[in-house]
Specification:
Largest sheet: none
CATH class: Mainly Alpha
Strand content: under 5%
Number of strands: 0
Number of helices: 6
Mean pLDDT: 94
Length: about 130
C-alpha cells in the first residue's frame, strides 16, 4: 500500500470504531464505549505517525508513546487526557480491574469522557489533513 492508502486505512478504522463507541454508549455500555474510545484515538495517532514519520506505526497501545514518537505537539491538557485514555485500555480489558472501572463508568462520567474524545478526534483529524 502507498503511504496515503495507509493513512486512509487508519482513519477509516478509527471512524468505524467511533461509530461503535457511540452505539455502545447509547446502549448504556459505558465502560466498553470508553475502551473503544481509546482505539478511536489510537488509530488516528497511528495515521498521524504514518503521515509524518514512517509507514509502520509503533506496535503499542500507549497513546502518549505514539504521540511522542510521531512528534505531535500536545498541550498539557491533551497529555493528561492521553494518560487517562490509556487507563481505559487496561481497566476495561483485565478482569481484576474491570469491576472497579465498571462502577466508575456512570452515564455522567462516560458523557464527559466521550465529549473529550470527540474534541480530540476532531483535532487529530485536522492535524492529519495539514
Amino acid at each position: 500500500m502507498e503511504k496515503n492508502e495507509i493513512i486512509e486505512y487508519w482513519v477509516k478504522l478509527s471512524k468505524e470504531d467511533y461509530s461503535a463507541m457511540v452505539n455502545l454508549f447509547k446502549s448504556g455500555n459505558y465502560s466498553w464505549s470508553l475502551f473503544i474510545g481509546h482505539l478511536v484515538v489510537e488509530k488516528l495517532l497511528k495515521a498521524y505517525y504514518v503521515k509524518n514519520c514512517d509507514i509502520n506505526p509503533p506496535h503499542t497501545h500507549n497513546l502518549t508513546q505514539i504521540a511522542e514518537k510521531a512528534k505531535l505537539r500536545l498541550t498539557e491538557k491533551q497529555k493528561d487526557f492521553f494518560d487517562l485514555l490509556n487507563t481505559f485500555n487496561i481497566l476495561a480489558r483485565y478482569p481484576d480491574y474491570k469491576l472497579d472501572f465498571y462502577k466508575k463508568c456512570t452515564r455522567e462520567y462516560a458523557t464527559k469522557q466521550i465529549n473529550e474524545i470527540e474534541e480530540l478526534r476532531l483535532w487529530l483529524l485536522k492535524q492529519i489533513e495539514k
